[in-house]
Amino acid sequence: RPRSHTVTTTSSSFTTNLSASSSTLAYDREFLRTVPGLLMVTEIVLGLLVWTLIAGTEYFLYPAFGWVMFVAVFYWVLTVFFLIIYMTMTYTRIPQVPWTMVGLCFNGSAFVLYLIAAIVDASSVTKDLHNHNYNSWAASSFFAFVVTCCYAGNTYFSFISWRSRTLQ
């Protein structure tokens, strides 16, 4: 008996919609004019200052500065990632992700860990260590506190955004 060689294929609407929406890349220039956008750019610029000021010294001899470096680099990379997500409006293409909650958790954790890192940084800066590193470490401590304030502001705006979404 001969067999039938008929093959039936189906396509889902998800793959069709995904390929159609990914071909156009949106760009939201207005995000940089909002307070959260300005805070995010400030976090990136000053966060870069924090870790480059420390990286230019013998920070690896002191574990406290290693912690500050970890926090500064980790949140710098994630902040750049989130800026790209907001600038390209990727969050509109992935509605399954609760972006307001993700933003609140990200900014809240960045605020808490940066506050700890800034305190550790400031308490580790002494003239007794190495005189030529003192100014870099003192400056990194100052900028770490400024970045902490920026993350605190973004945490507030993320909370307001999350709160307005949960009340609807």
Q: What do you see in this structure?
A:
Helices cover 71% and strands 0% of the residues. The radius of gyration is 23 Å and the shape is elongated. Residues 7-22 have low confidence and may be disordered. The chain has two domains: 26-97; 98-125 and 137-167. The chain is mainly α.
List the helices and strands and how they pair.
Layout: H1 13-22, H2 35-55, H3 63-87, H4 99-124, H5 131-167
What is this entry, summarized?
The protein is an all-alpha fold and 168 residues long. It has helices spanning 13-22, 35-55, 63-87, 99-124, 131-167. Residues 31-163 form the MARVEL domain.
Main sheet overview: none
| Shape summary | elongated
Count of extended strands: 0
**If helices are DSSP runs of H or I spanning 4 or more residues, what is the number of helices?**
5
- Beta content comes to under 5%
Keywords:
168 residues; mainly alpha; 5 helices; elongated
